[in-house]
Design brief:
191 residues; five-stranded parallel β-sheet; 10 strands; DUF1707_SHOCT-like; DUF1707 domain-containing protein
Length: 191
Amino acid sequence: MTHDPALRASDADRDQVAALLNEAYASGRLTSPEHADRLEATYQARTMGELEPLIVDLPKVRSSTAAAPIATEQTVNAVFSKVVKRGRWIASRHTRLSATYGALIVDLSEAVLPGREITLSISAFAAKLIIRVPPNAQVIDEVGAMFAKRQVSGDNTPDGDGPVIRVTGRVTFGKVVVARTVHDWNLSGDA
């Protein structure tokens, strides 16, 4: 990967570096914390010069592996149960969140977000769905609600450098909360 270091990096460039990092992690060349740190730096990089140091100490991998796309979709379900996903985890560009007769709590505040914009597609029936977003995130609310309570705290933020989180889907006979802090949840036991 030899490019002009001042050249702006594209999402495809970041995805290629992420694929190399995933291969290095899978083959034991990177520890879990090293992988998470480098992956986070990858998706925050703006120029090719910021991407190069992240893979300079890794061997070149087969072209078929390097061209393999990273996971762009994932699903988190809660059916007749309570599921909490928090801490440092790798979110996908498109994440489906589904809760039926239960509770699903997803905290993105420490998650590694792949790129500038991600989409959360939600589905909740007779369930509670709570999503915590990073403080500097811009939230685009496209959720429909029927016989439900919907609370989105602070749709937009003045800081234009944060991620864009698009929330789509439907809530029926349930509750959805999109918040920046635990205090916004009004559910101290779920923090």
